[in-house]
Design brief:
single chain; mainly beta; Jelly Rolls; 7-stranded antiparallel sheet; 6% helix; 46% strand; ConA-like_dom_sf
């Protein structure tokens, strides 16, 4: 796509969102819908020969990874290849699939209580091993297909997940299980594979964790692939294994801070973010400027804003607030509606020349007072924020826009 084509796309998008009449065109615009190209702003050159045809954000991930594309098909992404899904750029922290051979499971029944069962490999789906479990009998049956002895003795939250589909037989529902607790039923006759998962806090003496299904009675078939157990309180993207546990590296996306964010006095930042689940710590960071120094204290990452919502695993997974860390010692919070994490959150920060400002989550606004301007010492603006364990972003981010001016309330209301 040429520079002229990119500008035309930007002009049409701006007109649809009201920028032409109500809001100035963004100084930085990174859509993140299907690529890393910037419609406005400073980034790495994308060249055709000696001609620069576009500018792009930076991205790296020191491993391959998988993702469900916009059609819901499981795909593989190569080393340092970004993953784009329906809600934007997929950003995940590091995780490990503890199942040692998810692509070559032992075809045996580990344990069965009630009914008869068979376990077979049914070929592949898009290059991933597909398994079929058949449960026969009129009584309720609990069948273990994968023994998760590897989890024995581990502490903390672990999540078991797989892409599942129930067959056409008349009978009870089917649920994925970790130990003895069921997950939401997959139902009967599902046409497409759906992600089913369950998280549980394992005690130090836990030794009976397993992967299996439960049948409410009668005959039933279940197909599944991409089985995974990981040390997270939610399911992240599938990590194939073929003999030993494997780890997916964290995603890292960033743009130049100095040329894109500039002076923090008089700016507006807007983006749309969606998390997989509640935060592992107090919050997950959606955007952060690295290496700001404020009030004489130098820290690794500040001027960040995040979605709060650390809750007990069995509570409703809802966002509680947006956090904005202005400098080393100052954090402001804006209450958020109790909307599920499965819904995107529109996050806006407007900062005036005196460093006072306001945060907007969806349509809730919270103001904060003026403060001394922090000194910026490093030069990266991270999309997906900090990589410290427990604070990494797991979810999607899209439509990042920055204006080098503080927009008015009426202008902010027009932003989508």
């Amino acid at each position: 796509m040429s520079v002229i084509d990119l500008l035309e796309v930007g002009r049409q998008s701006a007109s649809k969102q009201g920028y032409a009449d109500n809001v100035p065109f963004p100084d930085v615009w990174l859509p993140l819908s299907d690529g890393l190209q910037l419609l406005a702003g400073f980034g790495g050159d994308v060249k055709v020969g000696d001609v620069t045809v576009a500018r792009r954000a930076n991205f790296e991930r020191a491993s391959t990874a998988t993702y469900l594309d916009k059609a819901g098909v499981l795909r593989r992404a190569g080393l340092h290849e970004p993953r784009f899904v329906r809600d934007g750029l997929l950003i995940e922290g590091q995780s490990t699939n503890l199942i040692p051979a998810s692509e070559n499971l032992p075809l045996k029944i580990v344990a069965s209580k009630g009914g008869e069962a068979t376990f077979t490999k049914e070929g592949e789906i898009n290059g991933f091993a597909l398994y079929r479990a058949q449960v026969i009998g009129n009584d309720a049956a609990a069948i273990r297909f994968i023994d998760l002895a590897v989890i024995g003795g581990r502490k903390g939250f672990h999540t078991v997940s797989a892409l599942c589909k129930a067959g056409e037989q008349d009978g009870g529902g089917t649920t994925l299980k970790c130990r003895s607790r069921p997950v939401v039923a997959t139902g009967i006759g599902r046409a497409d594979y759906a992600l089913e998962s369950f998280a549980e806090d394992l005690g130090a003496t836990e030794s009976s964790a397993y992967f299996g299904f439960w049948s409410a009675g009668k005959n039933i078939d279940v197909w599944f692939y991409a089985p995974q157990v990981e040390p997270l309180p939610f399911a992240s993207s599938y990590i194939p294994t073929s003999g030993t546990a494997a780890t997916r590296a964290a995603d890292r996306c960033w743009i130049d801070r100095e040329n894109n964010l500039g002076d923090p006095r008089g700016i507006t930042i807007a983006l749309t973010a969606k998390r997989f689940s509640h935060a592992r710590k107090n919050y997950h960071t959606a955007l952060s400027a690295s290496g700001l120094q404020g009030d004489g204290k130098e820290v690794d990452e500040l001027m960040r804003f995040a979605l709060d919502g650390r809750q007990a695993i069995k509570d409703e997974n809802a966002c509680r607030s947006m956090r904005y860390y202005q400098d080393a010692a100052t954090m402001y919070s804006c209450p958020a509606k109790q909307v599920p994490f499965t819904q995107p959150h529109r996050m806006v920060l407007v900062q005036e020349a005196d460093m006072s400002g306001r945060m907007i989550v969806q349509d809730i606004i919270n103001s904060y007072p003026a403060k001394t301007v922090p000194v910026m010492t490093h030069n990266s603006l991270y999309i997906g924020g900090r990589r410290a364990v427990g604070y990494e972003w797991f979810g999607t981010i899209r439509n990042l826009r920055i204006w080098h001016t503080a927009l008015s309330d009426s202008q902010v209301k027009t932003l989508s």
